[in-house]
Design a protein that fits this description.
Blueprint lengths: L6 E4 L2 H7 L2 H13 L4 H8 L3 H13 L3 E3 L10 E3 L3 E4 L6 H28 L22 H15 L35
Parallel strand pairs: 1-4
Antiparallel strand pairs: 2-3
């Protein structure tokens, strides 16, 4: 049986600002997809120093996004994500929260594309069935706001059962993978405008 989803909508400017830091965002993503890990394991995963990761983990803990969990041997101090996903709140009356949400979204997009570029650079070293399952697809759509919202919701419904943080009975040959979805209206340009 899969673990229940714990999605949190972030509205607190401090939590959003904390996640606008690329290392914190990467560490949280790693913990959500892998499960509990020590600061040293997080550091190896995100290519950072253990002491720096430890600091970032404490900042994430301040906002309730991660917490310490019991270790098997009692000597290590692993951390675990307290959420399985998050959403951003851009509305509201708090301009600081809106600015922090924008900064966090920008950091998230940069991280997604950094991970994709790293994959492309090492793609020729991937062996076996994983080599040919990557994809990059870009579509120029002609849609209404409701249609675009519907597309995003349907894609989300397809992906959601495979989220690592909630999938406890994955097949033995399953491994961590990343799917990013970016949907937005393109700027419109009137004919003849410069």
């Amino acid at each position: 049986m899969d673990t229940p989803e714990i999605r949190r909508t972030l509205t607190d400017a401090g939590a959003l600002e904390a996640l606008a830091h690329p290392v914190r965002l990467d560490v949280l993503s790693f913990l959500m997809s892998r499960g509990p890990a020590t600061a040293s394991e997080c550091a190896r995963a995100v290519d950072d120093a253990p002491s720096n990761c430890s600091y970032h983990l404490r900042v994430l803990a301040k906002y309730g996004l991660v917490e310490h969990t019991a270790s098997e041997d009692g000597r290590e101090r692993p951390w675990r994500a307290t959420i399985t996903g998050l959403s951003l709140e851009f509305g509201g009356d708090d301009p600081d929260a809106a600015a922090s949400a924008t900064a966090m979204l920008e950091a998230s997009l940069l991280l997604d594309y950094q991970l994709a570029r790293e994959h492309v650079r090492r793609r020729d070293r991937i062996e076996g069935p994983w080599r040919d399952v990557d994809a990059h697809a870009q579509y120029g759509l002609q849609v209404t706001p409701d249609e675009l919202r519907s597309i995003v919701e349907r894609v989300d419904a397809i992906i959601r059962p495979y989220i690592a943080a909630t999938r406890t009975e994955a097949p033995a040959d399953a491994a961590a993978a990343n799917i990013s979805l970016v949907a937005f209206p393109r700027p419109t340009f009137e004919k003849g405008s410069k």
